[in-house]
Amino acid sequence: MLRNRLVTVLTFNEGVLFRTKLFHPDYRYTSNFVDTWSVDEIVMLDVTRPQDNGTVNRELFLESLRRIARRCFVPIAAGGGIRTMDDVRRMMNAGADKVVVNTGAIERPELITEVAESHGAQCAVLSIDAARTAAGHEVRSTFGAKPTGLKPAEWAKRGVELGAGEIFLTSIDQDGSLSGYDLELCSEVAGGVSVPVLISGGAGSWQHFVDGVKRGGAAAVCTSNIYHFTETSLKSAKQFMARAGISVRV
């Protein structure tokens, strides 16, 4: 039986660790608080917006990735601005074990296949950012700002067909809310694919982790709240999940 994972999500704006709220950098943190022992995996995302000339200095993020990778003993999935296999190689060379593709995969779906064929399906993580609409959930691209017309469950299924080994699912509406995951969204996506789904956006209590697994069907639950990133609190979270009957590494 595969264990469920507790994943730390770190978002970087111009190389600086920030908390996000509704997909906008909201509060600056220091990565010194990040516990890289008790957590099962780390997702690192570059959320830097392009400058007026359309460019982004990705080296700032890559240096943060290198710094954390040097002292990290759990898998790191990294993403942000990945459009080509050269971008993938830069992430891997900086210390990533997996790459997270989002807008680049929407613009050019074969990117998922290229990553899977070059590095294995376990390396290809399809990130899906979804927002609630009157017609149901919709996939958004470009920092959650651009409607795509895609349905999350359908896009996830297509991504798996193209080679994605995991789905990283984030609710834009719940991001930074601390009010719980969008369980309906997670259930829709997890119920339609055979690969692990990582749920993100809204965790504010240990019970939310339990709900994400038991009610949402997630294989891994993610938190981007830095106050959870201490050894004591992460162990407490896992102990809480274990008491609720969830198989985790304590």
Question: What's the short version?
Answer:
The chain is of the alpha/beta class and 250 residues long. Helix content is 31%, strand content 26%. The protein has a single domain (5-243), classed as Aldolase class I (TIM Barrel, Alpha-Beta Barrel).
Keywords:
single chain; 250 residues; alpha/beta; TIM Barrel; eight-stranded parallel β-barrel; 8 helices; 31% helix; globular
Counting helices, strands and paired strands, the structural category is: alpha/beta
- CATH topology annotation: TIM Barrel
The SSE string, one letter per element, is EEEEHEHEHHEEEHEHEHEH
Strand order of the largest sheet: 1-4-5-6-7-10-11-12
Uncertain residue ranges:
none
Report the CATH architecture.
Alpha-Beta Barrel
What features would you describe in this structure?
- Helix 6 (about 185-190) links the parallel strand 10 and strand 11.
- Helix 5 (about 150-160) packs parallel to helix 6 (about 185-190) and helix 7 crosses helix 8.
- The protein is about 30% helix and about 25% strand.
- It has an 8-stranded parallel β-barrel with strand order 1-4-5-6-7-10-11-12, surrounded by 6 helices.
- The model has no long low-confidence stretch (mean pLDDT about 90).
- It has about 250 residues and is α/β, with parallel strands linked by helices.
- It has helices at about 60-70, 85-95, 105, 110-120, 150-160, 185-190, 205-215, 230-245, and strands at about 5-15, 15-20, 25-30, 40-45, 75-80, 100, 125-135, 135-140, 145, 165-170, 195-200, 220-225.
Please describe the topology of this protein.
Layout: E1 5-13, E2 16-21, E3 24-28, E4 41-46, H1 59-70, E5 76-79, H2 85-93, E6 98-101, H3 103-107, H4 110-119, E7 124-133, E8 136-141, E9 146-147, H5 152-162, E10 166-171, H6 183-190, E11 197-200, H7 206-214, E12 220-223, H8 231-243
Parallel strand pairs: 1-4, 1-12, 4-5, 5-6, 6-7, 7-10, 10-11, 11-12
Antiparallel strand pairs: 1-2, 2-3, 7-8, 8-9
Helix pairs in contact: 5-6, 7-8
